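Q&A log
Question type: sequence-to-structure
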Amino acid sequence: MAQTPWGELPIQDAHIHFFTHKFYSALAQQKKAANAEALAPLLNFEIPAPDPVALADRWAAELTRFNVQRAALIASMPGDEDSVDPAVAAHPDRFYGYFMLDPTQHDSLARVKRAAVNPHLHSICLFPAMHTYSVTDPRLVPILEVATDHQLSVFVHCGAISVGIRKKLGLSSQFNIHYANPLDLHPVALHFPLIRFVIPHFGAGLFREALMLADLCPNIFFDTSSTNRWMVYEGIDLPSVFRRSIEVLGLQRILFGSDSSYFPRGWHSAILEQQAKVLYELGLDAPQASQILCSNLEQLHTPRVLHVHDLRTKSSE
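Response status: OK
Response body:
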């Protein structure tokens, strides 16, 4: 239980980036640095040991320090589910496993099929603007069919995308925001009604479009992660964002996320403090706040008993 304006409440975090040694090594290659450790003085970050379980142990201790029950660990590069898998296996009651997928790669479907039968992996993460493809790309259809059959959730990054660590290293980011509109997900979410799609950062600058999508598709969820600096694009404040999201999605489709990522900063507790204060001032009571701060994420990853094939066939008629 964590201390909040309502007193002690359970907390689960829908958004922690798992910055592994493999991730830093890939950045070091792009920076033409000698190795991952050479990035430490450039970033003022701690570079983790190669063993992902050691990093998982560090995050588990960090969650304990802040009284966070459980969190989603997001692999921060395609292929790094090989790090998330043993991390979640070491702490299955503390983490959900999320893995980044680039569906333009030749082995993407095979990787999803392997992940689908892995009890330590729970969600596919798509970054269309980062990997320059449309979420309506036909290559995603068999991937989403696997997600439906195995009840994997699908995280889709929409809106503005900025990778702070790349900026700090002076590395360019050839992202294409043309592929970042939440409305592109509309026909996909309709066609795959059993998949629970998560849009982080309230749409990251495309809040109006994200709200329209969520209003039309009951299988769309928002995660509240980050400082939400994108609000300057739309001239709105965080209380307005939460109020309008609750009006459109209801309480049950909003997931608290911190967007924590690196050490020594560790878990970004200021995000919880800021967002809990907003929810309290909006008049939510403790059970309502607990939905957003904890139980919605747990429900997202609770297996359901469904006639999957029948429903999917019906949705495509």
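Response note: The longest strand covers residues 12-18.
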